[in-house]
Write a structure and sequence with these properties.
The protein has 298 residues and is α/β, with parallel strands linked by helices. Helices cover 29% and strands 32% of the residues. The chain has nine helices and 14 strands. It has helices at residues 73-87, 103-108, 124-133, 153-159, 185-194, 211-227, 263-268, 278-284, 289-297, and strands spanning 9-13, 19-26, 29-34, 36-42, 47-53, 57-62, 65-69, 93-98, 116-121, 146-150, 165-171, 195-204, 230-237, 245-252. The strands form three sheets. Strands 10-9-8-11-12-14-13 form a seven-stranded mixed β-sheet, sandwiched between helices. Strands 4-5-6-7 form a four-stranded antiparallel β-sheet, with helices on one face. The structure holds 1-{4-[(3-aminopropyl)amino]butyl}guanidine. 1-{4-[(3-aminopropyl)amino]butyl}guanidine is lined by residues 23, 65-68, 76, 99, 101, 103-104, 171, 173-174, 204, 241-242.
Amino acid sequence: MNDQHDAGETYNYGLSGDIWFTEHQSRDVDFSYKVRVLAEEQSPFQHIVFMDNPSFGRMFSINGFMQVTEADEFVYHDMIVHPALAVNPDIRRVLIIGGGDGGTARETLRYRQLERIDMVEIDEAVVRMSKQYLPVTACAFDDARLNLIIGDGLAHVQNSPDNSYDLILVDSTDPVGPGEGLFTFDFYRHCYRILGERGILINQQESAFYPGDFREMQRAQQKIKATFPIAMLYSFNMPSYGSGSWFFGFASKRLHPLNDHQPERWEQFGLDTRYYNRDIHRAAFALPNYLRRKLEQE
Ligand code: AG3
């Protein structure tokens, strides 16, 4: 287990013989699910486990970190995709980095007007296993508009020409292991360069309650702030992630998530969403005082 961010654990065998998946929230707090394990694989990059739990449904972890559960994936995937499209409804070119389970691609593909959707996932095992075990998210891989590239997201942004995309969605794991490169200065600088003038970068930003998670959030946020003129955080309620409160970063060259919010235009897309709406959009950017103070302090 490392000090920066307590890793999760795969599973314990309780006295009763039940199998429990445990994710450590801190040194002295665990979150455990009673599970049935369906498949487990050590890919060249990471350890992947697909499981069932009666309350959360089908779910999978990477290196002991919960990634997706059937019960609350709609929250995460609504919130990673829709806010940016409500700020810039003219987005045409999207880059998804990570997101091998397909949930982010599924939500992105709902916008008929998009002209280019590239998705760069480093680990084919996540895509392959999600197709087999998690059809609720992996349902859009056959869509011809999706260009799936199995490769390194950092290398992809380094090699992309200037002004290639209007939106970059970083659907990464935690900043340990193969996801690490997606939390570096170099990565953010290239994201800035390959975005157009009205470009937006959304990235998975951990959570604020447990000190280990907050450290990661802050490290990433400082780098993004140094790279983009507008860099904010927004929250959503994610029962299956540590503390239940999770964040994405919203960074852009020009567009402000609240001042440039265009709810009427977004509503014209006619998407029936289960979590996201115009009020959630505004509320998500309001940060509690404890977090504002923590962010100002350090
Ligand atoms: N990506 C991982 C989010 C972070 C989870 N972290 C944790 N449980 N400590 C989710 C992928 C969804 N497409």
